[in-house]
Amino acid sequence: MTTTGPAARSLELAKTYGSGDTTVHALAGVTVAFDTGAFTAIMGPSGSGKSTLMNVMAGLDTATGGECWIGDTPLSAMKDKDLTALRRDEIGFIFQQFNLLPTLNARENITLPMDIAGRTPDPVWLAQIVAAVGLGDRLDHRPDAMSGGQQQRVAVARALLAKPAIVFADEPTGNIDSRAGAEVLGLLRRCVSELGQTVVMVTHDPVAASYADRVVFLADGRLVDEIVNPTAESVLDEIKLLEGVPA
Amino acid sequence: MIRVMLRSLLVRKLRLLLSTSAIVLGVAFVAGSLTLTDTLGRVFEDLFVKVNAQTDLEVRGQVAIDGATGPTVLRKPVPAALLPAITALPGVRAATGDVSSYAQVLRSDGAAYETGGAPSSGINYDGNPATSPMSLRQGRAPAGSGEVALDVTTAQKAGLHVGERITLLLASGRQEALLTGTFGLGDSDNLGGASIVAFEQRTAERLLGRPGEYDTVRIAAADGVSVPDLQQRLTQQMPDTVEIATGAQIAAESATAVKSGLGFFSTLLLAFAGVALFVGAFLIFNTFSILVAQRQRELAVLRALGASRTQVTSSVLAEAIVVGLVASGIGIGLGLLVALGLRELVGTFGATLPTGPLVVSPRTVLLSLVVGVLITVVAALLPAHRASAVRPVEAMRGAAPGQASTGLATVVGVLLLLPGLGLLVVGAGGRLPLLAAGCVLTVLAVAALAPLLSTSAARLLGAPLTHRVPGRLGRLNAMRNPRRTATTATALMIGLAMVSAVSVVGASAKASFGSDIPAALGADLVLQLPGEQGIPVAVARELAALPEVAHADGLHLGQAKVGSSLTNVTTLPGPAIGRSMVLEQVSGDVTALAPGRMLVDQDEASRQALQVGSQATVQLPRSEPRSYLVVGTYRANLLASKYLLDSSAASGFATAEDTVLLLSARPGVSAAALRESVEAVTAALPSAQLRNRQELADSATSQIDTAMAFLNVLLLLSVAIAVLGIVNTLALSVIDRTRELGLLRAIGLSRGQTRRMITSEAVIVAVFGALLGIALGIGFGIALQQGLQDQGITALAIPLGRLTLFIAAAAVTGVVAAVLPARRAAKLNVLAAVATT
Ligand SMILES: Nc1ncnc2c1ncn2[C@@H]1O[C@H](COP(=O)(O)OP(=O)(O)OP(=O)(O)O)[C@@H](O)[C@H]1O
Ligand SMILES: [Mg+2]
């Protein structure tokens, strides 16, 4: 994998659900690149295809047209086995809810993907991440003894541990309050700035988007605009602008 | 509410199907057992009615041994002199005197024709259509002394054709005869598997009967004569030593006899069906518990919308009733197949059961339905109660339901365990019903206590799996819900406890017989015929005269009344004790057996309050009660019955032939030489069983093996249901943990690893259940062995190798049970799984 090119990109990526009258073009030809070491937010109205784009690019779902790459690896031709390995080794995930295994404690949850791969985490890196997550003494607790924000920070740590090429997060703050959300977003931001991690995050919240280096906007399965170095205000303005545009 | 319940039932079709399978199988076993018993009962009933259809009345002797009852009881003969008087009586159209005895048919290839336990008899051919149950099918009736007819089935199966000369073995020796015809009985070709050779009347009397005696006299009433009237007149005119019964009476008595024999068989089958249903109840309990847990949110919403606790409880119970009804219905249908299968099974274990159309009685249907529904509802009671305990506020939270405390179950478990163990200990003293009750209580107690153990057990058993992630996750999954794990394991435990107990008892019996039989046998060879048939006197005499034979001691086993109880006694020549049969003397002098004296098994002696010096009254079928002096007692002996009398008493038995011949070689004669010369004589008895010490022990142990195999096949169903339980629990757990599985797949758990994770959990649960079951089974087995000591199972043997094999088999079972749920888990669409709420 080259370090200079984008961490992930897509070309005319399309995803169609159903057929005939009920056809839905969730993605109608999306060409986008997520730069290495950058924090990108994806925004757009509900149903615009944000989650679909993320899922396809992360190898969780298959496209019906176009192509996408993680680094230089095209995904469309890959079998489930290789996709699983790719997800395990190159991609980190943070979901909106139910992120952790209830039977494992926080530390075990963090190291789970490495355990699955049969690798031992670099202890220095693990300590660094744990420190960044700021859970300290709660590492031996099970998820049901932690708040939503804490659980989500554990999920971030887990996504980072294997040093994936890219981390995808679908509305990681959608289920927690704004203070806990700010902690998670701050953590993601630091991961990008201080650890050089690439992060792609779907969000509805202009404030969350303002933590990113760049925001791309989707509408009706197409890329419609983008803002570099966004602020909450500029994002909000853009959303208003897009809502004014007839679909 | 009912609509809500039905809707939820339909949505959960698959889960329903899995959970009903336990009840389906259990009910099928019940229905199959009942159907088979009814069918066999009907077949015999029809047969006896047919056989006795031509008989209006029968003159038969009084019961030979006072106080003996039942239709197969030994009776005194009818004096032949009565026949002319009977025939001359007004109202009697015809009368025939019957005789019967042992007659073995040889097949066309010279081997004995095997009846699989049914009698091989010779009878008189009754050619009089007024009285005869026989209908000639082919050829003609036997006329002279060298002629016989055979029943159709035997002729066919033995490959014998009308017009050929055939060979028979009678009690008096080998006999050649011309096969003149075949006959049926009514319109059936055969009588319950028996082989029947018919001789011309006078020949039959000479070859099969005793001079001046008939077994019975059959009478046909003249047209227009009332049978009850004739019966009354005959009763008045005949001496007191005989009685008069109607054909219908005899048919009914015979049918009752067969049915009471079948009753035992049926009880045995139903007991195993009961075990299967018991295991099924655990499965239903688990399924409903899991379903209720999964529907926590839905139930809370119902409660929030105003449904009362009672409504929630009854909706779950209504679901159970529907499940029970559907399952029982399918089970009854399947029961017909089970009935056929059981008939085959019994067939493969040596007994031939007659065939006939299946009889499905309303009782079978009703009983199966009631049992199926009842078990399902009872098993669902606790889950239903828990469902109603869901608080409406839980509708608002997505929180996982808290673990219900195991406190009550623990208390119940301890309360059951103490009396259970107590009964086991008391029962081991020889009281088997108490022992059985102790087993049931202990199983229930362990089932109630198992959740306490399951977490530590899963941790321990899963430890070897933890070097890989799937194993580690599987182990955690097995630990996370102690009650679910425990219930699933318990279902397997029950089956394995029974199988293990059977193994321990079987191994102990083999060890006991394997050493006791050779020790009890002083002779070098033992000669027996199948089914305790008498050994022809001529053969016995010839063997005794062989130069290689030092002693040929004949044992005669038969029924007698000792004191006031009916029992088996054995007669043998006094000098045989010590040289042919070795007795372990307890008191008196066992070598002092002589006419008028008897020896008693020490256990029986203490039961009957007999000791050396006491007198006991013994009545044999053909002799008057007589007093015998007890001269010695001995430890239970597998070759002897509870009482030993001198051979001089043997004339009191119904037959003259001894049942066992113990042969010892003259000094200097090798075992091979002895055998060779004995075999030259017994070649005339193709079905003769000639065994030395080792072979005798082996034949006893191989019978034990057969019995064990039969029991294990019946128990297999319970184990199968338990395996279904594992499948079911895993499948439900996979549904439960859909999101979690999606997450694991998303972060890189491969399909193979997912499968291995589920498999690990299954193996842990299965091995846990197996260990519990084997531990219980060893305990039960030891208690049973202790309790069966006076049946000759004196040694205790625990087949550790076999039991270890069970653990391995359980692990394999776990792997197999996990196949479908694991495939399902591995196939989950990652996105859909993660999106599941
Ligand atoms: N499995 C599916 N089958 C059919 N249509 C689907 C499926 N998944 C998504 N869609 C449709 O595709 C479109 C894009 O969905 P997607 O989930 O990507 O939107 P989104 O931008 O993530 O919306 P939200 O902000 O509400 O999460 C929607 O119209 C949705 O209805
Ligand atoms: Mg979305």
Explain what you see.
The complex is a heterodimer of chains A (247) and B (837). Chain A is of the alpha/beta class. Chain A contains eight helices and ten strands. Chain A is 37% helix and 24% strand. Chain B is α+β, with helices and mostly antiparallel strands. Helices cover 55% and strands 16% of the residues of chain B. In chain B, α19 runs parallel beside α22. Bound molecules: adenosine-5'-triphosphate and magnesium ion. The site of magnesium ion (MG) has 2 residues of chain A, from α1.
Number of domains of chain B: 4
Number of domains of chain A: 1
Number of helices of chain A: 8
Radius of gyration of chain B: 33 Å
The low-confidence parts of chain A are: none
* Cα shape of chain B: globular
Give the DSSP E fraction of chain A (strand runs of 2 or more residues): 15-25%
Sum up the overall morphology of chain A in one term.
globular
Largest interface chains and counts: A-B, 26 and 24 residues
Supply the number of helical segments of chain B: 23
Which ligands are bound? Answer: adenosine-5'-triphosphate, magnesium ion
Termini Cα gap of chain A: 39 Å
